[in-house]
Amino acid sequence: MSSEFGEKIKVSIFGQSHGTAIGVVIDGLPAGERIDEAELQAFMDRRRPGKNRLSTARNEGDVPRFISGVENGLTCGAPLCAVIENKDMRSRDYEKLKFVPRPGHADFTAYVKWGGMADMRGGGHFSGRLTAPLCIAGGIAKQILSRRGVFVGAHLWSIGGEEDERFPLYPDEALFRAVAEKDFPVISDEAGERMKAEIERAAESLDSVGGVIECAVTGLEAGFGEPMFGGVESRIAAAVFGVPAVKGVEFGAGFRAAKMRGSENNDPFIIDESGNVTCEKNDAGGILGGITNGMPVVFRAAIKPTPSIARPQRSVDLRAKTSEILEIKGRHDPCIAHRAVPVIEAAAAVVILNLLSEGK
Amino acid sequence: MSSEFGEKIKVSIFGQSHGTAIGVVIDGLPAGERIDEAELQAFMDRRRPGKNRLSTARNEGDVPRFISGVENGLTCGAPLCAVIENKDMRSRDYEKLKFVPRPGHADFTAYVKWGGMADMRGGGHFSGRLTAPLCIAGGIAKQILSRRGVFVGAHLWSIGGEEDERFPLYPDEALFRAVAEKDFPVISDEAGERMKAEIERAAESLDSVGGVIECAVTGLEAGFGEPMFGGVESRIAAAVFGVPAVKGVEFGAGFRAAKMRGSENNDPFIIDESGNVTCEKNDAGGILGGITNGMPVVFRAAIKPTPSIARPQRSVDLRAKTSEILEIKGRHDPCIAHRAVPVIEAAAAVVILNLLSEGK
Amino acid sequence: MSSEFGEKIKVSIFGQSHGTAIGVVIDGLPAGERIDEAELQAFMDRRRPGKNRLSTARNEGDVPRFISGVENGLTCGAPLCAVIENKDMRSRDYEKLKFVPRPGHADFTAYVKWGGMADMRGGGHFSGRLTAPLCIAGGIAKQILSRRGVFVGAHLWSIGGEEDERFPLYPDEALFRAVAEKDFPVISDEAGERMKAEIERAAESLDSVGGVIECAVTGLEAGFGEPMFGGVESRIAAAVFGVPAVKGVEFGAGFRAAKMRGSENNDPFIIDESGNVTCEKNDAGGILGGITNGMPVVFRAAIKPTPSIARPQRSVDLRAKTSEILEIKGRHDPCIAHRAVPVIEAAAAVVILNLLSEGK
Amino acid sequence: MSSEFGEKIKVSIFGQSHGTAIGVVIDGLPAGERIDEAELQAFMDRRRPGKNRLSTARNEGDVPRFISGVENGLTCGAPLCAVIENKDMRSRDYEKLKFVPRPGHADFTAYVKWGGMADMRGGGHFSGRLTAPLCIAGGIAKQILSRRGVFVGAHLWSIGGEEDERFPLYPDEALFRAVAEKDFPVISDEAGERMKAEIERAAESLDSVGGVIECAVTGLEAGFGEPMFGGVESRIAAAVFGVPAVKGVEFGAGFRAAKMRGSENNDPFIIDESGNVTCEKNDAGGILGGITNGMPVVFRAAIKPTPSIARPQRSVDLRAKTSEILEIKGRHDPCIAHRAVPVIEAAAAVVILNLLSEGK
Lengths: 360, 360, 360, 360
What we know:
Chain A is α+β, with helices and mostly antiparallel strands. Chain A has a single domain (93-358), classed as Chorismate synthase, AroC fold, CATH 3.60.150.10. Chain A has nine helices and 18 strands. Chain A has helices spanning 37-45, 92-95, 107-113, 131-147, 173-181, 189-204, 232-240, 262-265, 341-358, and strands at 4-5, 10-15, 21-27, 65-68, 70-71, 74-75, 80-85, 151-159, 162-163, 211-218, 246-251, 269-271, 277-279, 287-288, 291-292, 297-303, 313-317, 322-326. In chain A, the strands form six sheets. A five-stranded antiparallel β-sheet of chain A has the order 1-2-3-7-4, covered by helices on one side. The longest helix of chain A has 18 residues, at 341-358. The relative contact order of chain A is 0.18.
């Protein structure tokens, strides 16, 4: 078990940042589902680096090539494989890093685990680049979910100390779409400007900064998920923690709940205008006892600051066992949180499509 | 997939709060491991309700009975099953709740999922009582781990806004043991008094309060875990979110990392006095790229306030589709976070023992 | 992964032959399913030893006690646990076997695997006795399947060289029931007499004999199962080989197909009287490309002769590394194939219920 | 779960016969393992069609291209992906088959399962062509196993009624190699001539014929595998039944055991010349209680006759619900059993490498 998740629908991700190609196999997709390649590309492009200082200069131009599972634009039931060839790689930059691990990266742990055989050019299999194939899977899942009335959307909730608005109680598809179409994926553009300024400040000081992403899933009926370890929280968290740089996941009020009184945190049940049972508010994040309660599923993921920074850092030479001062050259984002927004959507979408496929 | 987790060592939990019995099957334990029943009982007793206002009056006196997998005090290789008979149940209290779901509980979601057939007396299979069998599994895992030099410990880090100290950079077994032996599992007794006062205040206002638990695993070599979805964070989070009332999980600096600069968050590598590569600090929580880096694995879990409160709450009648005012009788904890401390240790211990059993 | 199988519905079996108890946890059963305990007991009794020379004298009188998952005779959604207490054990008989492994048994492999800690009294966890909890799971699965129009039946097809009739092209529930009600589970009683005589002959020569069981599942629509390793054949075979003493599994024509011409083996498609597509015959055993084709699923399992025989056998002392002549005392069946008939049904029923629960 | 198997090392197969490409992802391979591409190609070539009447004319020339997981000829720890581009396809031949399913093929079941969206050109994902990626995985597994002293070999044991010799009690690597290097993979060339004549006879009558493959694994210590459903038999059978056209699997004496006396079938334990415990013979096929006993693991797989035959066959039109006479054009093997020999080795090798990776 490693670069794979999902139960009925399995997503298996392969590739290294500077290898021949990266890609994904999706086994178990329903047959006859149209894949809108333009929409998928638009989704993929949301995680691409931009043209300004906020992102790296490497222009990946990632266009997935479907080599199985799709015929005439429709899933055919067989496992789907999509591949993105790597190009525009500058591996020279990474040669010297092999024995001087970058702090905050997986260089050291991969070195230990794989006995020095790891291909860590550009971060290798641990690179944020591997989130591109996850976005292929998630983008397809989102398209299938939307046909079932289920929508997955996310926004950048904070950068450093600068915060966006929270999602409203019932975020709708229009809001998701509006955020997705922005260059900077926030609800409040004013907050977005403050966040961008924060990223600029980090960049100016040759540093980086982290952020928090808020994600919501709407249109999901009550009754999906299982008690205890088969709960929706367990399954989303396991997928989202598989995204590089995620260090925290919380549902509904999350860590804030730990400071609340029960009378404050409990979501009262009410009868809505259609006569259905629903909740007055959503501090549970749409999940009670691991099972969806019909409210939007809402969670947040903490993204650590990009570990690659231009400042000199203290590290060691793994062979000589000596202290070293490491200066990382190359192209690096001062922040990856805004680029990770569609990635978090992707991870959530695959989990939710699995839940739907399994049935209640 | 539901009330089960683990790969090489599978833990499968069964039972309802007011059913005949609760218990656990552990399949895949190494053979020949001594189970110190007194030590296990001491561990189990840490989650038992106390004798004061801080916990419910129900005296569970949970003593596991091993009905398979143990011979002469040693694991014999066959799946281990341990059972705790239920007693001292007052199910009458719950009869009227069947169609009026308690806010914050799984009553409604279980009702939807299981078509009204759910046995929800005392919370049924969703009850915190089901953490007792998890503690059997975790307590056994802890004993096995300790023989391999790996120790798992936790403390109550906060109640409401009152906070304990954080674990030191290298918590040791003595600290774990000292916390475990206290009536109230904190590092700083002064902080503990403030927390207990906070629980008292919640109780006095017929309310409840949440908290945060900090857990650490020491003695784990670098190299355990897999990239992406097989990472240690994914696996611990999936297990810990399976514990009722957990709404957030974070590793190392966690959500705080989102507010940090990269230069601040990155843990510099150093050579320690024994000539080994290690980190100067531990904001990564011992995990880089999903793989252990040899530092203690450190994570925190947010526990929501007990949903059962004595105050009247708004709910609905699921059949009549009418609004109802619900008053919950019976015995309920104003806080469960302190009782959940060994439970979080248990979930972590099972994951870590799996990692060790799988090898690097 | 060990004594557990199933995907959406997981069956986890525990216990040792001469331990405190044996039992099963079934996680993922649909809620609201009635468990007819009398019918279940009748099913369980089919694997019980009889009162004549054909079976051992140990009277197990296995009555499962449900300790979770069942309320008022209905499944409640929570994991079901059923336990059978062991009694009438004569462990003395096995003491001397600990270091002199019985040929054909798991004594030696368990000794190696579990470092001599294995509890092998009566065969321990490897005993045929562990098929009793499998029958609990299978018996419940059969009841649920029958409500969906799916029936699982089996008969003893051969003992030594003596053969019963094969199932007709479309075996029906009445035939399944008729076989199940017989003391000796065959279609043709005349063939049954020949088989029983063969068992008697084996018993008279202080020996044992094997047999083949044929099992069929009717009422299953086309479209269940997945291609390749998720195929129905893979899943049934994995479950059935988990039954002690099974050494071969074949579907439809099976090994006979290897001797056939394609024109002979292919099942022509026809339109039946209701206008549905079906097959003229069933040499595929109801499965094409791993997926059900709407014909009955038919397979056979080869059961080896009981390894415990009264004749002296050559073995070794594992500590002294010396040759030994082993004489097995105690109660042993000259044949277990007839008792294994419901066990094979049980394994198949759990697989099929999983397929139905997953959907097409 | 579908076109994937393995636990610690997962093999996920994708592609359709006439799609863009076929391939495999192998997740969890140990790092630093050399992949001898020439040896792998030689292994792959063993399943390629030959130049005579015994195989189809399509010249696949399958050369895997590694797009991840291999650097400088060594596995690097990251998931390995290998792709084979499809070429020399004549899909026209299959157009008319879409609504007239070929008997013995998965056309009908795929049609039902995937609602007519299945890409069944050339058999689609169900084609024997998908065994090429399985051979990539298996060929790599074999290379890794051989470095650990474990060897996997197979031979064609029978075609129709013509039989080869059985493997000797201890087949060695030299024998495996000798068989592998032959054009026709048998032990006895004289038997091979009889088998080839049988295939010729089938071809002359516009028909096909099946066969049985015998496979052995040597060098495996005692103690691998788990009791019951985690047994070696369950795991090998699940993998081997995932190979198209396999209809039966048996271990050791297999179905023959059902006709044997216990005194005949039991393998006496002896002390070998090195003072180790071993067996005098191997009717258990190297497995007792699901666990290896140190003898070679030996099993046989029944391969049905190629369903594609030139003779007219009865089928139906799935839309018109009318009877049809189907004549299959195109290139088809009169027998696939000899080509399936390395495929069975491949399936077994992946299972065995998993067992070794998991440890005892």
